[in-house]
Design a protein that fits this description.
267 residues, alpha+beta, Immunoglobulin-like, 2 domains, three-stranded antiparallel beta sheet, elongated
């Protein structure tokens, strides 16, 4: 019966970690609200990710008597800000960012102004950075996500087993290692290539923390596997905690990007 409760605990920890990673990442939409001078509230939800192949729609609710301008520029870049008047489509004010190549980033901000004159509002207070990505086939993406999720699940189950003095821990170690290695190091580069045009952008080739943290987690479980063969249990707990820590890092943080400034300098 204790084993069942340990699995329940592992599922809860895994779901919590996955939810945190998703909502804390740089691709999660920016949400907020502002109050206008007349007391009306404007709630907004601004995207930070868009697919290659179409323009990125930036929209806010339309308010009678108010207009909006979309300010944008590629980033990182030395180019100046460009402005585009947002047009009303139904009950929304909408502006479109031009499509960029995979991993191309655009910084943008909205300028909301009363048509009769008066103080303007910047939405949000700091510019939003949106990154374009290529389409990833579900045939590739779903096994990648499933393998990584199950790898996290088995890692948490192994760690809880050590904490609660379960007799047999080694049976969780090899599946954890295999799932993380297959999902992160075998399928991961193909997902990265489809989405952002490169197979690897983590250490030592780049600064992508998603790629780098996958290597850290896999190496931790290689070490735990070797140590557990000699009967040691504490390395399994350490590897479990390392995995939990690295997956607490927001997904896509410091992810692949086109350095427009470097390209401009090279010309």
């Amino acid at each position: 019966m204790r084993g069942v409760w340990l699995w329940v605990g592992a599922v809860i920890v895994t779901l919590a970690a996955a939810a945190w990673q998703r909502v804390s990442g740089p691709t999660w939409p920016v949400r907020g609200k502002v109050w206008l001078a007349d007391g009306r509230k404007l709630a907004y939800r601004l995207p930070r990710s868009a697919e290659v192949g179409k323009r990125a729609a930036i929209a806010i609710p339309a308010l009678p008597g108010w207009g909006a301008v979309l300010r944008y520029k590629r980033t990182p870049s030395r180019e100046g800000w460009q402005e585009l008047a947002m047009a009303q489509e139904g009950d929304k004010l909408v502006g479109y960012l031009r499509e960029q190549p995979p991993a191309g980033k655009v910084a943008y901000q909205l300028r909301l102004f009363p048509k009769a004159g008066g103080a303007e509002l910047a939405i949000p207070p700091q510019p939003v950075v949106l990154r374009f990505k290529g389409q990833v086939s579900p045939v590739l993406l779903l096994p990648h996500i499933l393998a990584m999720f199950l790898g996290m699940l088995f890692a948490n189950r192994a760690g809880l087993g050590v904490l609660f003095a379960e007799s047999s821990i080694k049976r969780f170690v090899l599946p954890t290692l295999g799932l993380l290695a297959f999902g992160g190091l075998v399928l991961g580069p193909f997902v990265q290539k489809a989405a952002f045009g490169v197979y690897w952008s983590g250490f030592p080739l780049g600064r992508d923390l998603t790629d780098t943290k996958t290597v850290v987690a896999v190496l931790a479980w290689v070490w735990a596997f070797l140590q557990s063969r000699g009967g040691k249990r504490w390395p399994v707990l350490v590897a479990s905690l390392v995995t939990l820590a690295v997956f607490a890092v927001p997904h896509s943080l410091l992810g692949s990007e086109i350095n427009w400034e470097a390209l401009e300098t090279a010309k």
